[in-house]
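Technical annex, item 7. During the second reporting period the consortium partners agreed on a shared format for inverse folding records so that results from different sites could be compared directly. Each record opens with the tokenized structure and is followed by the designed sequence. A conforming record, contributed by the partner at site C, is shown below for reference.
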């Protein structure tokens, strides 16, 4: 599939991604307190239906959370992955959000991994993504195009810190796989 050179819609990135939390106070403590994302806007939904809070995740983008007093419980393996990548099953259901990846500067990547672990956040091993058959190299090499590690927020939402080392731009050598079709 060739990239579109003149898009029909001029998109400027992601305005915000809206997720659902079980406890807004705990969510604010994690996203602002642990990750350092400033709280941008808070909204109280009418008739006691809940809250909607927005956090600045950098680059003009936001991550937002709804809190609904009667939200269903999470369903790991359906609404989100059960495990961190590299540690077990990462499949989630069609229509679910598998994870949120935040871009971090390559020069701070290793320090951020250590800093989150020091704050008591369980972090995955560093994954060096490359074009090998497994898609991950055990060590950094010239073919690694992105490095990442994963962790979960207090509600089990899978998060990723990632840094591009070589950001693909849709060149033919980077777009070589045929999309699969539905099996039903």
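Designed sequence (site C submission):
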């Amino acid at each position: 599939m060739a990239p579109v050179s003149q898009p029909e819609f001029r998109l400027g990135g992601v305005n915000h991604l809206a997720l659902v939390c079980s406890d807004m106070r705990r969510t604010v403590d994690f996203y602002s307190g642990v990750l350092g994302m400033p709280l941008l806007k808070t909204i109280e939904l009418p008739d006691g239906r809940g809250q909607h809070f927005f956090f600045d995740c950098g680059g003009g983008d936001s991550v937002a959370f709804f809190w609904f007093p009667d939200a269903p419980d999470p369903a790991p393996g359906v609404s989100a992955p059960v495990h961190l990548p590299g540690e077990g099953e990462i499949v989630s259901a069609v229509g679910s959000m598998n994870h949120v990846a935040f871009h971090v500067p390559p020069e701070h990547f290793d320090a951020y991994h250590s800093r989150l672990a020091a704050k008591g956040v369980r972090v995955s091993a560093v994954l060096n993504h490359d074009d090998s058959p497994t898609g991950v190299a055990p060590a950094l090499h010239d073919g690694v195009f992105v490095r990442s590690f994963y962790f979960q927020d207090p509600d089990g939402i899978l998060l990723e810190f990632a840094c591009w080392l070589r950001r693909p731009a849709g060149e033919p050598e980077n777009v070589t796989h045929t999309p699969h079709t539905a099996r039903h």
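The domain at 75-178 is CATH 3.30.720.110 (Signal recognition particle alu RNA binding heterodimer, srp9/1). The CA atoms of residues 50 and 142 lie 48 Å apart. All partners now use this format for quarterly exchanges.
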